[in-house]
Design brief:
Layout lengths: L2 H18 L7 H20 L2 H24 L5 H6 L12 H5 L5 E4 L6 E6 L2 E7 L9 E8 L2 E6 L7
Parallel strand pairs: 3-5
Antiparallel strand pairs: 1-2, 1-4, 2-3, 4-5
Amino acid sequence: MEPITLYLTLLAAGFVLIGAEIFIPGGILGIFGSVAWVWAAVVGWRSFSEPWNMLSALALLFAGVLTFVVWIKYFPKTRMGKTLSLKATLADCKSNVAAKMFPVGMVGEAISTLRPSGIARFDGKRMDVVADGEWIEKGTPVKISSTEGGHVSVVKAGETSEQ
């Protein structure tokens, strides 16, 4: 294959592969497209005469950087970018509702056997809990001993936590 044909083929393949990344996300096609551009730069460097080989390499570098900047800055604002992007935010999510709703010392009932984790009911609401220490049988009254780190720990009602 003639060097100029190979050069133009690699440039076109790079553009097509990077453009296909929009429809088939995952990064593989974009990586192949980038490799095609780097290979085109090498072919251009070896094939073109002195001033044009540097100009070709710089143009490819500039095109790559410009493509990346446009992609990051402007694509998410386009109609297609908006349909492909996640719109929901986590601003309304609460990580540990149990600590606020169920204070330490509140008494409930184990509705599954806690070995050590299971489900208990407090104030009519089911909640995932972890037993401190021993297994607790289904139907046993339990008391919240701590609500730290997103975990609700319980002990048998009438016992105290050793923390």
